[in-house]
Amino acid sequence: MSTRGGTAIVAVGTTEQGELPGRSADEVAVSAIQLALAEAGLGKSDVDGLITCKAGMGRGGLDTTVGPLLGINPRYSATLDYGTCNFSLHLGAMVIAAGLAEVVVLAYGATQRSEKINFGVPMGVDLAAASGFVHVAGPAGLALQRHKHLYGTTDEQFGNIAVAQRRWAQLNPLAIFQKPLSMEDYLASPYLVEPLRRHDVTMISDGGAAIVLTSAERAADFPKKPVYLLGAAETTALSGARDVDNVMRPWLADVARDVYASAGLGPSDIDALYIQDPTAVWVLQMLEYYGFCGIGEGGSFLAEGHTYPGGSLPVNTNGGQLSESYMWGWLHLCEAVRQLRGECGERQVSGAEVAMYCSTMVLTKGAASIISTRRS
Amino acid sequence: MSYDKPLPNIDDPLTAPFWAGLAARELRAQRCAACGTYRLPAAALCPSCLAKGDDWARISDSGVLWSYVVYRRALAPSFAQDIPYAVGVVELDHGLHLLSRVDAPVDEITIGDRMTARYDDVAPGVCLLTWVPEGNARV
């Protein structure tokens, strides 16, 4: 099945981000859906497809819990067990192409900050967990330490990810972390899990996001400029989940090859780039594997300043999970849509026509989407 | 002093031979009875040829440090008293890697260091493996 230009994003909705005490993840998801439907000029009865994303640690987010709260009986509904929104977007495009639904809402709500979810708790005790190897900073730190060893990447080069994203966040009213962060501040801050500092690791926050999809044929009927899905690709390294050296994630090169082939475009066509960032290490890896620089050259590429406001390759113009909010990548896609529509005020990337969003589900799944206001 | 960190379930039939090996001061990995592929961590069947049978074979408990991290802040309360502590991956024979605690001055650890296993009894029947720089191997 070719995805090129067949599906369009016609609305996005994002709730307040930060702390939303007293509300369940499902309730926040419904709030985000309401915002997205309002932007689309739709009522909830117009929704015939619902794809939700599980909230962390068994706290809702099922289609069978969000749907009843939203009070709808869509023709199609499903839940994905992993976030990042790319997987939801691709499933939505398939549902529309298969004729199972015409107006599909993707939604995610999270209350992990208010509920004080502890991401330092191991899921089962093996030798790693018994050794205190906890949190995503563990595997990400192993990958960065190895990268530094192999390629000579420095703390200062790597620090450009967190510093640039903070610079972008200061231009984004939705972003939670707005305090200026200079390279001197970054380098003076202590290690959390060496070689990672606090600034290199996602915050924990509450919030919701939703996206409305429909067929390209119907997209012109909506108030906002449609943003078309030009290319989509996924791959997995499911068997590699057993290998600790899989933290280097070389299989990301396969997603890159396939997403560019799917869209008929290459790295030089990307006007704004979004990379899901539970830690900054994933940004470093994906800049390389998606061909914006050579393997091992991420450090020097970052030091050249391309990813900052005004640079040649704006990356995570929302501030990402390091500075905007932790929404499992969903806000990256919402931001990409708003950039392509030209709605981003001070942080607007001028003339942006094509954006790419790259994400991964920990160490085993990767996905990417290329979207554009052009249909082909 | 009582040991209050997370402990593995050494009675899980899948992994019990691994923990029994550590208690006997040996590093053991599963070896597929059909195709001979080694696997660590344990799995119910061979992900290479899908055969079910296996032997637990003793493997060398020394290797080269592949990468490591240093926990400078406690992300889990039960490890707070160990801060700072290092955790590292050691490359073993047969294409295997094993991640565990590294007991060495955290500012002196380098990728490529030769490491060897030290066996630490932490609770009745429970022995953990700690990587230590070679030449400093025995307790």
Write the layout of secondary structure elements.
The complex is a heterodimer of chains A (376) and B (139).
Chain A: E1 7-14, H1 25-40, E2 49-53, H2 63-70, E3 76-80, H3 86-97, E4 104-111, H4 127-130, H5 137-151, H6 155-169, H7 183-188, E5 191-194, E6 196-197, E7 206-215, H8 216-219, E8 227-236, H9 252-263, E9 272-275, H10 280-289, H11 298-303, H12 320-323, H13 330-341, E10 354-361, E11 365-372
Parallel strand pairs in A: 2-3, 2-4, 9-10
Antiparallel strand pairs in A: 1-7, 1-8, 4-7, 5-6, 8-11, 10-11
Chain B: H1 16-23, E1 27-32, E2 38-39, E3 54-59, E4 62-71, E5 85-91, E6 97-102, E7 114-123, E8 126-133
Antiparallel strand pairs in B: 1-2, 1-3, 4-5, 4-7, 5-6, 7-8
Care to describe what's here?
The complex is a heterodimer of chains A (376) and B (139). In chain A, a hairpin with a 1-residue loop joins strand 5 (191-194) and strand 6 (196-197). The model of chain A has no long low-confidence stretch (mean pLDDT 93). Chain A has 376 residues and is α/β, with parallel strands linked by helices. Chain A has 13 helices and eleven strands. In chain A, the strands form two sheets. Chain A has a nine-stranded mixed sheet with strand order 3-2-4-7-1-8-11-10-9, sandwiched between helices. In chain A, strands 5-6 form a two-stranded antiparallel ribbon. Chain A has helices at 25-40, 63-70, 86-97, 127-130, 137-151, 155-169, 183-188, 216-219, 252-263, 280-289, 298-303, 320-323, 330-341, and strands at residues 7-14, 49-53, 76-80, 104-111, 191-194, 196-197, 206-215, 227-236, 272-275, 354-361, 365-372. Chain B is mostly beta strands and 139 residues long. In chain B, the strands form two sheets. Chain B has a five-stranded antiparallel sheet, with helices on one face. In chain B, strands 2-1-3 form a three-stranded antiparallel sheet, covered by helices on one side. At the A-B interface, helix 4, helix 5 and strand 5 of A face strand 4, strand 5 and strand 6 of B. Strand 5 (191-194) of chain A pairs antiparallel with strand 4 (62-71) of chain B.
